[in-house]
């Protein structure tokens, strides 16, 4: 069993190597700047550890929206490639769902890239349903 716990904001630097796996086109400086900008706006991060080694993360937002009420939104979820396929993702999602219930959330919502078919299958196998399309327009 792996240990799952919140990562203190003072230790967020330790998540950068995993974030770089998710976003290889962005340098560490860009990822750090974005992470710094998220702090103080309700961003939290959950870490998965194997005997002290950080092997996975999930960003976490607690939100309240008219259409769904209070919910958590995990984001930037990644398990280090050396640990994938071992049930760690399932363990993380169970932890997140338990946490959501503990803080009286009505749901867990997340975004998944349309091209990431493996992740889509994973979330759907856990009972998550696609309910919309996430649009984006990059500005110059």
Note down, in words, how this protein is organized.
- The chain has 140 residues and is α+β, with helices and mostly antiparallel strands.
- The chain has a single domain, classed as 3-Layer(aba) Sandwich (Aminopeptidase).
- The chain is 30% helix and 26% strand.
- It has four helices and five strands, in the order βααβββαβα.
- The relative contact order is 0.14.
- The model has no long low-confidence stretch (mean pLDDT 95).
Report strand %: 25-35%
SSE series: EHHEEEHEH
Structural class: alpha+beta
Instruction: Give the biggest sheet.
Output: 5 strands, mixed
- CATH fold-level topology: Aminopeptidase
Offer a quick outline of the entry:
With 140 residues, the protein is α+β, with helices and mostly antiparallel strands.
Fill in the keyword field for this structure.
alpha+beta, 30% helix
Break the fold down into its secondary structure elements and pairings.
Layout: E1 3-6, H1 16-22, H2 28-38, E2 44-50, E3 53-65, E4 69-79, H3 88-102, E5 107-108, H4 117-125
Parallel strand pairs: 4-5
Antiparallel strand pairs: 1-2, 2-3, 3-4
């Amino acid at each position: 069993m792996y240990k799952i716990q919140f990562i203190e904001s003072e230790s967020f630097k330790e998540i950068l190597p995993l974030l770089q796996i998710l976003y290889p086109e962005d340098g560490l400086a860009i990822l750090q700047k974005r992470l710094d900008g998220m702090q103080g706006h309700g961003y939290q991060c959950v870490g998965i550890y194997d005997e002290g080694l950080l092997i996975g993360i999930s960003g976490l937002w607690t939100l309240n929206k008219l259409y769904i009420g209070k919910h958590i939104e995990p984001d930037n979820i990644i398990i280090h490639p050396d640990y994938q396929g071992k049930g760690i993702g399932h363990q993380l999602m169970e932890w997140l769902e338990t946490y959501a219930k503990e803080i009286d959330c009505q749901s867990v919502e997340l975004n998944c890239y349309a091209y990431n078919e493996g992740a889509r299958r994973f979330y759907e196998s856990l009972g998550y349903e696609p309910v919309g399309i996430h649009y984006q327009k990059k500005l110059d």
